[in-house]
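Sample pair:
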Amino acid sequence: MESDTNPKELPRVDTLKLLRLIELTTSTKSSERTLLVCLALHADMNKRYVCWPSYDTLAKWTQLHPTTLRLAAAGLEDKELIRRVERPYTTNLFFINVERILAEVAEIRKVEGDKLAEEIDQIADGSAGSPQAAPTDEELQDDDEIEGDEPVASLERLLDGIVDTWGSHPNFKKYPNYRNLLKKDLKKCVKLAGDIYIVDHTIYHIAMQNEKNRKWVADSKSLGSAIAGGFPSWLQQYKAMQGQEA
């Protein structure tokens, strides 16, 4: 994406007005709208509508799976309603494009008439303060410009899911620190897949959600070995599934 040499000024829209604008948009639906509303609730107008939740945090807020949220974020970005920066081993940066939302809603005034047009004008009249410049790509990429929360503990999140699914496995009773031992097997999966998120999604969709695979892991002598041993095949299935959905 090209950098902004002359950043545009953003209208100052407080949270309630921004939510009203999102309500009026017609290009978003389902998980995209849920994500956009969630970001609007946590974006800071004084920091140019930027927020930095991880997908794990967004999943807790929205009750949507991280895979669904990633697809929703991609859809919003395609519509130019947000910009995002995915930062490995830490949280993401999301910028809500208020100007684009206003432009989309302004199109509705042609259909809905003067009453709505007046409301839109009141929302965008700068009543919340003076306009400010939209963040440049360099600022969004600069970790020192906009503070984020703590790095995402994706491996810990995956371990939580494994314990929830296979917590009754004998290994947990036999080895009190078995959760930590599982990390070694999961790191093998990460090395193969190259991305902790792919490991997370593969195990969730192919192993946990498949009754046959879930039972096979549960009945195995070694839980960690079963996951590490089954993962290459699961990864192929997951990639094939993603290819069919694309």
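The chain has two domains: 9-141, 154-245.
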